[in-house]
Amino acid sequence: MNKKKWEEIARPAQIPPPGDWNVWLILAGRGFGKTRSAAEAVRRWALSGQYKRIALISNTIQEARQVMAEGESGLLSISDPEEKLEFLPSRRLLKWPNGAIATLYGAEHYEHLRGPQFDAAWVDEFAKFQYPRETFEQLSFSLRLGKNPKTILTTTPRPIQFIKDLMMRDDVVTVRGTSLENLENLSPTFLKQLEYLKGTRLESQEIYAEITDESSNTLWSRSDIEGCYRSPPHFLNNIVIGVDPALTSGNESNETGIVVAGIDGFGKGYVLDDLSISAAPEIWAEKVAEAYRKYSARLVVMETNAGGELLSHLLKSVDSSIKIKTVFANVSKIARAEPIVILYQKKMIFHARQFHKLEMQMTTYEPKSKSPDRLDAMVWAMTELFSVPKSGGVPSIFVT
Asked: By residue range, what is the domain housing residue 160?
C-alpha cells in the first residue's frame, strides 16, 4: 500500500503531529492502529532520507521482529515491492536502497543501546518493559545523530509512573485513542471480546487507554478481592490442583504453589485451599497427593518450566493414580493472569475463606517482584477450569 493510500485512510490521530516535538507518544487501546501509525511514519522517514539510522525497540528481540518488522502492520508488510526493503534477520537489520537502516533491539537487553548512534527511534509496547525508564534514558543517549532526532512511543497504558512523567514533558506530544475508533478494521471476534470486558478495570486500561489510579502496576486491586468470599456448594464434581513447583527448599528458595480450585454447575469458580509450602520436592509431592485424595480432584495441573517431566515422575512415584496435566509457561505471568482477573472482576471466582498470603501476592505482584508461586498455581488451576486459551484471551465460558 503506497504512502498516498495510507494518508487517505489514516485518521488524523495516526499522522505525525505538527510542531517541534522530540517524542510522539501514542497512548491508545488495543486495536487502535498504533503499530500501523508508527510503521508508516518510520517508512516515510526512511524513504525520504530524512532519517537514516533508526532504532526499533520492543520488549524482546523476538517481538520486535514479529510485530515491528514482519507483523501484519509491520514495515515489511506495509512496504510496496518496488521500495525493495530488505530484511537481514541475522544482523537484525531492515535496509532501504537509499542507505537508510533500521536495527531491531529487545528492551530486556537495553544496555545493547550503548555505543550505537541513531537519528530516530520507534519503541513499541513501552509499558510492558521491565525497565522502561532505564531503556528510554539509554536510548536518549544514543539519539545523537542529525539536527532533530525523534522518537515514537506506541503503547497500551499501564499505571507506571514513568509514562505519567513523559506526558508532563514539554517536548512530548501525547495522542490518546481508544479501540473503538478503529471498529471497521477489527474482527467480529475481537469486538465480541470487548463486550466481556465491560465494567472491568481492564476495559479502562486496554480499550479506553486510561491510566488507572492504582498506586502500583498490579493486576488485582483490593476491591477485586473484597466481597469475593463465598462458601462453595457441598458437591463440586470438577476440582483441580494447580502446582507451581520449586526444586529447592533453602531459606532463599521459592515456595511451591499448591492451590485447590473447583467450578460449580453454574460456571462459578472457587479457590478451596492454599496448601503452598517451602519444602523439598518429595515433601511437597506428598502434600499434593494428600490434597488430591482429600478433595477427590480430577486433575493436577503442574507447570514444568523448571523441572520438566522429572516432576511428573516424582508425583507419580508418590501416587500412581494421580492424573497430571503438564503446562509450560510460554507467555508472561501478566498475560496468563489477565483472563483470570476479568473473571474476578465479573464476580465469577470466589474464595472459600480468606487466603491471606495468596491474596497478598495477587494485590502486590509487579513484573519486578519475586516469583508469585501461590498466584501462579491459582492461575493455572483457574485456566484449566475455565478453559482459557493457552495464549490468553477470553475464557471459553464467555464465548457462545
From this structure: 3-184
Q: Is residue 189 one of the residues assigned to a domain?
A: no
pLDDT at residue 249 in the model: 56
Residues 83-117 pLDDT 10s? 999 999 999 999 999 999 999 999 989 999 998 99
Residue 168 sits in a domain of what CATH number?
3.40.50.300
Domains: count for the chain:
2
- Specify whether 158 is located in the same domain as 266: no
pLDDT of residue 390 exceeding 60, the answer is: no
Mean pLDDT, residues 339-357 taken together: 90
Q: Which of 154, 184, 214 is the C-terminal boundary of a domain?
A: 184
Do 171 and 246 fall into the same domain? no
Percent of the chain topping pLDDT 90: 51
Which comes out higher in pLDDT, residue 190 or 65? Answer: 65
CATH number at residue 389: 3.30.420.240
- On the question of pLDDT at 347 being above 50, the answer is yes
Q: Would 254 be classed as within a structural domain?
A: yes
Q: Check whether 359 has a pLDDT greater than 50.
A: yes
The CA distance from 222 to 133, in Å, is 27
Same domain, 246 and 392: yes
pLDDT tens per residue, range 303-333: 887 665 688 888 999 999 999 999 887 777 8
